[in-house]
């Protein structure tokens, strides 16, 4: 499961059952992580960004702009959860590989092999401004940097062979120097000598997630990712094609395609009846101030749309390439391209496209079809509502999936890799 | 208490009761942290460095070169300890203030007000090599950078006023935009716009520790630190003078000198009798390979002493300024200056000077004299042996100090600040 502190929508924090005053409280995360463990979820994933969205005043007034630094939080959660994998976003644009390799290896030890990381390249200038840059790096440069970053981190994790430590009090040998490797990396972006000051992680390497939908993002995923989050491209056939594309890219890189899991994002809104679920979606829409919807679109389009009336047809020229998140921009462009939608309708369509609205039965239908139909290896669940949505899914949908035999609801092993069906990578030094 | 994973000496991991195979296991830290809580200790401090000491082969063979990244570890410890403060080293030379402000604020929330940080400027070229630099920054440049770093981090912590969040589901107002402050910092080393994406920490600011002994280090401490670790300058009078110097510097900066706590490092070796304690010190010396002692000296002197026979007088010219840790270098220089010590004797003297060897009674005498005699506000205990030394201190010395009425052994409050007797800083915005 994937999440922002308050849930998958800007207005999630206003929903019934939401607990906004607990977003900096470890107990909030512990409670729904344990619910997720009851459902056998493989991964708890903490999405992260490195800025306050203050470009528009509505972003400060109405949006959850506070969150804990994810690795400190995951360190805490490692002690109050038992089985779920613990992963978080790492920006390769605004971090140093030595720090990242250390904290991921540390989390892997502290959690007994449950660590994971989601490599992102960061898309907002706001982040650049907090790290001494005037603007974000260009899209292609960011992806080149990400590739090198991953290579350095993986190299650092291999610094010590798995059997390098002797802990021999008698002879005085703590380690075997012949089993230590210095990286001596010199690349376009990083110069890192190594070695890393922590042993090779229990999983060999924490699980590597990615989400890039652009050509550069897919290429990176094909070369390095072990699981990729995708956004619904619209329809089962398109989802199959996207699935096949990632698998083909893994194969083209000489990898076993089964070692790149494709996990479409899925945001269920669950009702006892379809009508009840639809009413919940209406509520999400109602709880989103117009002004916030406009500013959110302005953010992704990189120009101010707020002077455009909500109920008139919206048809700007969006042909210029964007430096923003490619998948969201492409989705807006498709809707604008239809040529007859007002801003309110575009917003409504964006909202609807993000959520799967239905009963436990119809949601299980969707999951079963995608999973057995070659379009998904699993799903990244992004709940509109926390903790209510997590509880609903575990109580209502998981039993239905078990009944159909498409999901056991049980953990297959003890490590994050085992539970995702991924092998333990060998050290680059053999 | 202060510590390296294995204890305060290079050979600590070989001592009876040491548990080297647990140094990456959270249970190891949890167990002795709980012992420390039984003794009423204010702070658990994790010393940190960003490299493997592989300049000499003996450093790989015989030294503990692995450790967990401290903030991930402290995140974990926040859930398995109740009262002890949780602090760790932060290098201002190889970090970004935005990341550091976030993780310290996060730890402060996750631990309900128990976070602290020890600002260091990093002294080894090995660290520079892991972060894209050819050599460490110059000593004075490092301290200028540290000053600016602290200023930026403290400014970021004040981004949101204490009452900035409304969490008002009804009106849709999550926060009050008028209570958000943008830092817009532009300095010699950092350009950071802000604001920070987490609320002001429960303590206002996590407790700021420092340890610099050089003029630049003392100046920084006088201006910014709330607690300073000192090394014994040799004798009670010198300790008083050092104590007074820090207090005077705080006063000269317009600060209440009581808000800069002076905490001399204290490494007790405790025996039932003095003879037993002395034998333990002999054991520490015996367990240190000669070659490792030589390489350790070479490291701090920045030239190779290993060809010098252990049992001949050692008298090199040490007048050149050093880029290494000033306090250790000065101590070696004093011993060499005596002019009749062999390398073995210098090593022995260095070892002896680092430890206070005695019975619970004589150790309590020392503590009482320094504490009541205006030379210490408390002590940073650095145990030669973990967990044995921690247990001995809590079982044997703490009761003696309580009997004498110089230490209650009780926590004064619930936050790290309260337990150290430090006030909650006000926001720079009022």
UniProtKB/TrEMBL annotation, chains A, B:
Provide the binding site for FMN: 48, 89, 139, 143, 214
Superkingdom of this protein's organism: Bacteria
Flavoprotein recorded as keyword = yes
Q: Which InterPro entries match?
A: Diverse_substr_monoxygenases, Luciferase-like_dom, Luciferase-like_sf, NTA_MOA
GO MF annotation, one: oxidoreductase activity, acting on paired donors, with incorporation or reduction of molecular oxygen
Which keywords does this Swiss-Prot/TrEMBL entry list? Answer: Flavoprotein, FMN, Monooxygenase, Oxidoreductase
The UniProt record lists the Luciferase-like domain at 24-374
Question: Which family is this sequence assigned to?
Answer: Belongs to the NtaA/SnaA/DszA monooxygenase family.
Protein's name according to its UniProt entry: LLM class flavin-dependent oxidoreductase
């Amino acid at each position: 499961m994937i999440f922002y502190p308050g849930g998958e929508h800007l207005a999630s924090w206003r929903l019934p059952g939401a607990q906004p005053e607990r977003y900096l409280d470890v107990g909030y995360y512990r409670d729904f992580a344990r619910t997720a463990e009851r459902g056998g979820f493989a991964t708890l994933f903490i999405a992260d960004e490195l800025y306050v969205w203050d470009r528009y005043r509505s972003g400060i007034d109405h949006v959850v702009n506070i969150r804990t630094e994810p690795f400190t939080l995951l360190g805490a959660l490692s002690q109050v959860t038992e089985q779920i994998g613990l992963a978080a976003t790492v920006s390769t644009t605004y971090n140093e590989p030595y720090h990242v390799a250390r904290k991921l290896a540390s989390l892997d030890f502290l959690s007994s092999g449950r660590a994971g990381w989601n490599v992102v390249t960061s898309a907002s200038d706001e982040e650049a401004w907090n790290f001494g840059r005037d603007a974000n790096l260009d899209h292609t440069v960011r992806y080149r940097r990400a590739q090198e970053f991953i290579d350095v981190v993986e190299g650092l994790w291999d610094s010590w062979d798995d059997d390098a430590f002797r802990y021999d009090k008698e002879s005085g040998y703590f380690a075997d120097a012949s089993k230590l490797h210095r990286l001596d990396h010199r690349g376009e972006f990083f110069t890192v000598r190594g070695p890393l000051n922590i042993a090779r992680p229990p999983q060999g390497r924490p699980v590597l997630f990615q989400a890039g939908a652009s050509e550069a993002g897919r290429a990176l995923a094909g070369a390095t990712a072990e699981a990729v989050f995708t956004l619904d491209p619209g329809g089962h056939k398109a989802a199959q094609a996207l699935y096949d594309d990632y698998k083909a890219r893994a194969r083209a890189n000489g990898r076993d395609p089964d070692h790149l899991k494709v996990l479409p994002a899925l945001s269920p809104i669950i009702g006892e009846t379809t009508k009840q679920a639809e009413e919940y979606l209406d509520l999400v829409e109602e709880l989103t101030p117009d002004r916030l919807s406009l500013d959110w679109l302005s953010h992704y389009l990189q120009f101010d749309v707020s002077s455009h009336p909500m109920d008139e047809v919206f048809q700007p020229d969006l042909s210029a390439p964007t430096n923003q998140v490619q998948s969201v921009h492409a989705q807006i462009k498709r809707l604008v391209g239809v040529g007859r939608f007002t801003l309110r309708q575009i917003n409504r369509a964006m909202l609807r496209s993000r959520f799967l609205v239905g009963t436990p039965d119809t949601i299980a239908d969707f999951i079963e079809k995608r999973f057995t139909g070659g379009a998904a290896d699993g799903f990244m669940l992004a709940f509109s509502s926390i903790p209510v949505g997590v509880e609903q899914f575990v109580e209502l949908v998981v039993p239905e999936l078990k009944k159909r035999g498409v999901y056991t609801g049980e953990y297959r092993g003890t490590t994050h890799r085992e539970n995702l069906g991924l092998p333990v990578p060998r050290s680059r030094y053999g």
